[in-house]
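Why Transmembrane protein? Reviewers of the renewal asked for a concrete example.
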Amino acid sequence: MNNASAHPWYVRHGLGLALLAICVVSLVGQVLAGHAAWNEERADEGMSPLSLVAYLETGHFVSATFENWESEFLQMGMYVLLTVWLRQRGSAESRPLDPAEEEERVMPGPAPAWATAGGWREFVYSNSLAIAFFLLFAASFLAHLEGSWRHELDERAMKGKPPIALWDHFTGSQFWFESFQNWQSEFLSVLAIVVLSIFLRQHNSPQSKPVRAPHRQTGT
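Here is what the prediction returned.
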């Protein structure tokens, strides 16, 4: 038995389980707070409140959820690709400036089947992380668009205004305001860790250089 399998399952998957739990708790908080906020808006317009289940089908919930997921997946997809070609001197988030300093560590054991298949399968697998993020971004973008459009239809209906077409919403300012306000914040957070990891340390974190590493050291 190797050292990894000797640990309980919750230790082997602790990081993923913790992040999943935080995500679920945050999503529940969003649902409860969003439900209350949307019913307050409806009450202001003299409309009856929606049940929690009915709220989950509204554009208010769908738009708010997927506009955030969209920006997260865009950020991670772009970050995966940008770190292939670009470097940042001294950052723990960058590959070394000198290719000779790079060392690819591979544990003993069989490689994934597509990693050695050759042809298009090996190409796809070699780029599968970025591909997955951009597919998730595209799906979230479309879900955000549909939810944001339905939310605008609900708001227009409450104010007695006529509905608008999906294309008109897509080309309007509100949808892109929702997108860009999230995109800029995501790339700002990535910029922060890229730059701060040059000068600051976190003991035992793989996102940090060793505590005693000089500022000029690039990569972990």
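The chain has two domains: 9-57, 58-98+113-220. This is the kind of structural detail the renewal will allow us to pursue systematically.
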